[in-house]
Design brief:
mainly alpha, two-stranded antiparallel ribbon, globular
């Protein structure tokens, strides 16, 4: 990509990073409820992988024919119709860039689908189920980040339950990706294919929306932290002081929308720099992003669900910032859709190595950081 395409791509990343964050948090909150085994992260990963599969199998740009002999009469027919040679005209077609060079395609896959799905959130949920932190045991109920309040006879039952959750998450994600590819290849589905000119127009519109979205979310993040005090005098001469500010939830959403595009940029550049290290064997960049996101999320989980740390976690802004970092930065930095897409591009042996490493590596980090803390200091209800 040239410089102008990179500028468009990063503005498109901003738009789809924000859209993916809103879509993921929205679908998790819509589908998660008390008593649900597995929470709503599975639904977000399912939808994101399905869209990713469709995009991978979809033809984005149609190449128009180049007919240099259109004005010349046909030697066979004697008419003014062009003499066509396979496939069109003189056999040449307009140059079509590779998908990886199309900002709209990269924005949709890396930006939207990568943000819509989250490996770190699934790892936190997996640990909470396996460690029985979200189960009702011996009359005591403790709720985790996404699920909770389902019954285990004893804490040991969390291990097979966690294994079941891991199998379900992997199976649903891979099956959804394949279903998306099948839909894109279905002969009775007429897919929208853009011309090069139409593609450029869509990219320019999304770039403008991305720039506007950046400005709006920064303003919202600043305004959401402003509190105004108004002093009035009642009819009895008593001074009345009232404070008003935006809803505390507004700060969470605003900060999440600020952190999400930053995580998209980080994932894109880390993958671009590190993935060529072991080409066609192990996408090191995506793996590093998933590991880093899980590591940071484990630290944030300690702050939220570990023993109360009054110095750092006093409620209010600190809780909203940590929640926004968890859902906006960590969940966006890690991805399941790109992971599944890469699994399908590798040979079988390397696919298993990469897939198992991407599942067990982040889980080990979660156990070492979050697990070791709560097992030595006990698990508490969220401070936030």
């Amino acid at each position: 990509m040239n410089l102008w395409q990179q500028v468009r791509l990063h503005l498109i990343f901003a738009f789809f990073g924000i859209a993916g964050f809103l879509a993921r948090v929205g679908i998790i909150r819509l589908t998660a409820h008390q008593g649900l085994f597995g929470g709503g992260v599975i639904w977000a990963n399912c939808a994101g992988c399905f869209i990713m599969g469709y995009l991978v199998g979809h033809v984005f740009v149609a190449a128009g024919p180049i007919q240099t002999s259109a004005a010349a009469p046909s030697s066979q027919t004697g008419t003014g119709a062009p003499e066509l040679k396979p496939p069109f005209g003189d056999g040449r077609r307009a140059e079509v860039p590779a998908k990886s060079e199309i900002p709209l395609y990269v924005g949709l896959t890396t930006g939207f689908c990568g943000t819509f799905t989250s490996l770190s959130s699934a790892q936190l949920e997996l640990f909470e189920i396996a460690a029985s932190t979200t189960a009702t045991i011996a009359g005591g109920t403790e709720r985790g980040a996404y699920g909770g309040d389902f019954a285990f006879p004893n804490a040991g039952y969390g291990v097979p339950a966690g294994l079941a959750y891991a199998i379900i998450t992997c199976s649903v994600s891979i099956a959804s990706f394949q279903a998306g590819r099948h839909l894109a290849a279905a002969p009775y589905i007429k897919a929208l294919t853009l011309t090069p000119r139409g593609l450029l127009f869509v990219e320019l519109v999304l770039s403008a929306l991305g720039a506007a979205a950046w400005v709006i979310v920064f303003v919202l993040a600043i305004v959401s932290g402003v509190t105004t005090s108004v002093t009035t005098t009642s009819g009895d001469g008593v001074l009345l002081t009232s404070s008003s500010a935006l809803s505390p939830a507004a700060r969470y959403w605003a900060l999440g929308m600020v952190f999400s595009p930053v995580a998209v940029y980080t994932r894109y550049w880390v993958s671009r720099l590190l993935n060529p290290t072991f080409p066609r064997k192990f996408p090191l960049g995506t793996f590093a992003c998933n590991m880093l996101a899980t590591l940071v999320l484990a630290v944030l989980a300690v702050l939220q669900y570990g023993a109360p740390i009054t110095v750092l976690m006093t409620g209010g802004i600190s809780c909203q910032v940590i929640s926004a970092l968890a859902d906006g930065f960590c969940a966006t930095l890690s991805t399941v859709s790109t992971l599944v897409s890469e699994l399908h591009s590798l040979r079988l042996k390397y696919s298993y190595i990469y897939g198992l490493s991407s599942v067990f590596g982040p889980f080990c980090l979660m156990v070492l950081i979050f697990g070791s803390y709560i097992w030595t200091n006990s698990y508490h209800a969220s401070v936030c």
